[in-house]
Amino acid sequence: MSAADLAARALRAIRSAVTIGCSGALAMLSPASAACPVCGRAFRGQGKVSFAGLCPACTEAIPWIRRIECPVCGRPERCGDCARRTAASFVASRSAVRYDASVRSWLATYKYRGHEALGPVLGEMMAEACRHLLAERRARYPHFRFDALVPVPLSEERLAERGFNQAEQLASCVGARCSIPVVEALRRTRNSGKQSYISRRERMRNTQGLFAADESRLPALFLPNDTRSRSIESLVATFWPTFGSSPTPHAGQPLRLLLIDDIYTTGSTIDACAGALSESLRRLYPGTSVEIYALTLARS
Ligand SMILES: [Zn+2]
Ligand SMILES: [Zn+2]
Questions:
Q1: Distance (Å, whole) CA 126 – CA 146
Q2: What residue range is the signal peptide (predicted)?
């Protein structure tokens, strides 16, 4: 591939990669009464603990995962799944909350009933978990950072039905709050049907080859963080000369990506996405070391 081709690809990717802010500001807690974005009840916030504008009862109900047992998938209980897996394509996955009855109903309201105002609230929960994950890694690797957030793509069919991809919206919230760019670097190769109704074994089979990297967008993963909000013209001037060689903007550090999805169940979706991304990256950018992590709202 010529340098000009690479540069053109990178610029196309940046256009689609520049993080759009978290749509819908979080409800701020005012001394006057406010409506809770989850239950809709009006409440007075004075002196009460409120997370992201939720009423005290809903704030209480958030089933945070504070202590993890499985260092791979972040499960709060002992985990047989990760012990059984012979090789994972991702380093570690973390989730903000348990998938209990409250979270199940919040996600259903958000995803299936189109209550998009819940997106920023759920995104804020994930941003909280993202900060924890960063702190956890930085305790061992002080320079640890994520180069990009990559949302798990929705099938065309599901997107048409729902009108939005929850993973993209959640990624855009986490990106805005934690200053990490979002790059939609994955695509679905086919429709997979509804994952919620199938067994663990079927799920594993179902995700094989389901995702592929969107190779035209991969160059955007390598751009230094502070360049991604700059104008296309200034990026052309800066990066055009350098795109002929293998992109290595961060000296000695691997490229670290954080996959974003709403629910982690068996890990087969995350594993398939991570596998597809690493395969393309290793093939197109030989010599680049890649580490893939995942963050989901809920752990079922
Ligand atoms: Zn509430
Ligand atoms: Zn596990």
A1: 15
A2: 1-34
> What's the CA-to-centroid distance between 264 and ligand 1, angstroms?
25
Distance between Cα 57 and ligand 1 center (Å):
6
With a pLDDT cut of 90, the percent of the chain lying above it is 50
Going along the chain, which residue ranges are E strands? 33-35, 42-44, 93-98, 148-151, 186-188, 211-213, 255-264, 290-299
pLDDT in tens, 127-139: 999 999 999 999 9
Residues forming beta bridges with residue 148, ordered by sequence position: 257
Distance, CA 115 to ligand 1 centroid (Å)? 14
Residue 280 φ/ψ, nearest 5 degrees: -65, -40
User: Into how many domains does the chain fold?
Assistant: 1
Q: Which domain holds residue 137?
A: 3-299
Report residue 193's pLDDT band, with 50, 70 and 90 as the boundaries: low
Using an 8 Å Cβ cutoff, are 98 and 298 in contact?
yes
Identify the CA nearest to 111 among candidates 26, 199, 37, 170.
170
Which ligand has the minimum distance to the alpha carbon of residue 52? 1
Please name the amino acid found at residue 256: R
Average pLDDT over residues 217-241: 64
Distance 61 CA to ligand 1 centre (A): 9
Q: What is the dihedral of CA 65, 142, 230, 150, to 10 degrees?
A: -40
What is the number of other CB atoms lying within 10 angstroms of the CB of residue 14? 23
Query: Can you tell me the distance from the alpha carbon of 123 to that of 116, in angstroms, rounded to the nearest whole number?
Result: 11
Tell me which residue of 155, 148, 102 sits closest to 125, measured CA to CA.
102
- Pick the ligand that lies closest to the CA of residue 83: 2
How confident is residue 75, by pLDDT bands cut at 50, 70 and 90?
Answer: very high
The pLDDT tens digits of the residues spanning 234-249 come to 555 555 444 444 455 5
